[in-house]
Structure formats: structure tokens, C-alpha cells
Design brief:
The structure is a single chain. Helices cover about 40% and strands about 20% of the residues. It contains 10 helices and 18 strands. It is α/β, with parallel strands linked by helices. The chain has a single domain, classed as Carbamate kinase (3-Layer(aba) Sandwich), CATH 3.40.1160.10. Bound molecules: adenosine-5'-diphosphate and N-acetyl-L-glutamyl 5-phosphate (X2W). N-acetyl-L-glutamyl 5-phosphate binds next to helix 4 and strand 4. Catalyzes the ATP-dependent phosphorylation of N-acetyl-L-glutamate. It catalyses: N-acetyl-L-glutamate + ATP = N-acetyl-L-glutamyl 5-phosphate + ADP.
Length: about 300
């Protein structure tokens, strides 16, 4: 079987494969033993082939000695179930307004359906994953989010988003235990308050805080755009905090991109080496970012 495959490769193909493998070597050496947090957005989970490719990339990272940690979203999947029970989704500044009934659905979809689907995909690809919500091992301690309107004339008003939370602390104990035993943690962004109540937290915010708490080398945010685009739709390949402020002010960054950029910046300012916004609709986007010289998407650094 193997000999037959080798014979079918022409010289150019064989050369290309060898170059790709050779290019990957320094990255494998550099990132071996390092933690890489990958946020898998609900919009990036579009088709079965892409999902399988994602799981294979994660398993490959683990096999070459990196420690991938997956934090997933599931916004569109929550929206689908809300629709089926006749409820409308409402977002304010990228956050889902979450009443008690919506919170139940969020917990079911994220902690049940989406989390277990990703764990299963990783197993199908030959890896070993354990799914967690923020309640498992007290992983994500949360408080109610206090978000102000971003319009200057209403900046002093706090928006009541219901059961939407922000991360108060990440308890890394359970993650350290899983990573040291070579499991890949898969985290659903549901937090728990001091009173035991559940909070719906934007998955980007959780990914950023998990990356900070684990002193991660990289934070990768997979979404449904090629990266951060300017007003003309051109990809911005590199960004720092100064440029980001200007892009928020002039409205280039809006909606779901606001928490994404915010958490990426905070993460790099708090010790994560680099953050990347990449296109989860591209096959093997994770592998391309980690193992190639060019990388893909938008790179965010502190300076
Ligand atoms: N400057 C920008 N560049 C690219 N996308 C942007 C920008 N500003 C806002 N967006 C929006 O942010 C969306 C990504 O955020 P979101 O829908 O929350 O994704 P995810 O579900 O992957 O977290 C894009 O699809 C786009 O509509
Ligand atoms: C507060 C808030 O908005 N929570 C998100 C949690 C899921 C999420 O972030 O999913 P994506 O990454 O796929 O967007 C929500 O309810 O949609």
C-alpha cells in the first residue's frame, strides 16, 4: 500500500511534500512543550470536512509535543435551538442577551451538544480529549457582566444582559492535571458564580483568560473571516493596541469582532506571546498558522 502511494507521486509533488515537512521542523522544535489555546468559533464549524480537518490539526499538534487547549463557541447552534423553541436571539455589542430560559438552552447546547461533538471528533482523529464546562473542577469562576454602552452619549449606562458573565478567575488545576496526562481539554464557555448559578460567557473572552492563566505561547481565534479587515475589505496582517483603538473608534471593528480583538489584546498584554485571528473556513487553518513561515490571518502583538 505504502509503496504504491510513493510510486504515484511525481517528482514535483514529492518535492513539495518534503519542503512543507522541512518548513514545519523549526516550528515543531520551537513550540514543543508550549501551550496553544485555540478558540473554535461556532461560525467556523461550518461543514463536516472542515471539522475533521480541525480535529486532525489539534491531534497533530499534540503528537509533536505541543499542548493544545480548545475553547469552543456555538453562537449559531444556540440560535438554531432558540429558533426551534420560538425565541429570538438578541445581541448587544456582540453579547447575547440571556434570560433564564435562554441560559438553560445555552448550557444545553454548549455543554452538551457542541462540547461532546468536538470531543468526539478529536477521538475520531486519534486523540484523547476531555470536555469541560466552567463548572467542572470549578474551572471558570464568573460574575455578572457590567458592560457600558459604547456610544459616547450613553457611556455611563450599564446594560442589563441577564445571565451574561465575565471571567473572574480561571482555576487551572483541572487543566494542568489533564495536560500533564496528555489529554486535550475542550472547554465550553459556561461560567459559575459564587452562588453556583450559571453564566453565559462569550467564548473569545474565555479563550483569552484561559490563555493568560496557562501562560500560553499562542492564542488562536478561528472565525468566519480571513482575519481583521479594513473598511475596504483588505486583510490587516499585523496589529497592535494603538491601531486597534483607532479602528474601534472609526467603526471598522464592530459586533462580534469587538470581544475578539479586546480579548486578544488583553491576552498579549498579559503575557501571551501572540494572538491570531484566522479563517476557520480554510481547510487546516490551524496547521497553516502553526507550522508555516507565512502564517495566516491577523497577528496581534503587544507592541
Ligand atoms: N473589521 C472587521 N473585520 C472582519 N470581521 C469583522 C470586522 N468587524 C466586525 N466583523 C464581524 O465579526 C464577525 C466575527 O465575529 P463572530 O460572528 O462573533 O464570530 P465567531 O462566532 O467566530 O466568534 C465577522 O463575521 C464580521 O461580521
Ligand atoms: C454572552 C454571549 O454572547 N455568549 C455566546 C457564547 C457562545 C459563543 O461565544 O459562540 P461563538 O464563539 O460561536 O460566537 C452566545 O451566547 O452566543
Amino acid at each position: 500500500m505504502r509503496a504504491q502511494k510513493t510510486m504515484n507521486l511525481n517528482k514535483d509533488q514529492a518535492h513539495n511534500i518534503a519542503s512543507v515537512l522541512a518548513e514545519a521542523l523549526p516550528y515543531i522544535q520551537r513550540f514543543s512543550g508550549k501551550t496553544i489555546v485555540v478558540k473554535y468559533g461556532g461560525n467556523a464549524m461550518t461543514d463536516t470536512e472542515l471539522q475533521r480537518g480541525f480535529a486532525r490539526d489539534i491531534v497533530l499538534m499534540k503528537l509533536v509535543g505541543m499542548n493544545p487547549v480548545v475553547v469552543h463557541g456555538g453562537g449559531p447552534q444556540i440560535g438554531d435551538l432558540l429558533n426551534r423553541v420560538g425565541k429570538q436571539s438578541e445581541f448587544i455589542q456582540g453579547m447575547r442577551v440571556t434570560d433564564t430560559e435562554t441560559m438553560d438552552i445555552v448550557e444545553m447546547v454548549l455543554g452538551g451538544q457542541v462540547n461532546k461533538q468536538i470531543v468526539n471528533l478529536i477521538h475520531q482523529a486519534g486523540g484523547n480529549a476531555v470536555g469541560l464546562t466552567g463548572k467542572d473542577g470549578n474551572l471558570i469562576k464568573a460574575t455578572k457582566m457590567q458592560m457600558a454602552f459604547d456610544a459616547p452619549e450613553r457611556a455611563s449606562e450599564i446594560i442589563d444582559l441577564g445571565h451574561v458573565g465575565e471571567v473572574k478567575a480561571i482555576n487551572t488545576k483541572v487543566l494542568d492535571m489533564l495536560i500533564s496526562d496528555d489529554f486535550i481539554p475542550v472547554i465550553a464557555p459556561v461560567g459559575v458564580g459564587d452562588d453556583g448559578h450559571s453564566y453565559n460567557i462569550n467564548a473569545d473572552l474565555v479563550a483569552g483568560k484561559v490563555a493568560e492563566a496557562l501562560n500560553a505561547e499562542k492564542l488562536m481565534l478561528l472565525t468566519n473571516t480571513p482575519g481583521l479587515l479594513n473598511k475596504e475589505g483588505v486583510l490587516l496582517t499585523g496589529l497592535n493596541s494603538k491601531t486597534v483603538d483607532e479602528l474601534i473608534e472609526d467603526g471598522t471593528i464592530y459586533g462580534g469582532m469587538l470581544p475578539k480583538i479586546g480579548c486578544a489584546l488583553e491576552a498579549v498584554q498579559n503575557g501571551v506571546h501572540s494572538a491570531h485571528i484566522i479563517d476557520g473556513r480554510v481547510e487546516h487553518a490551524v496547521m497553516l498558522e502553526v507550522f508555516t513561515d507565512e502564517g495566516v490571518g491577523t497577528l496581534i502583538t503587544a507592541e
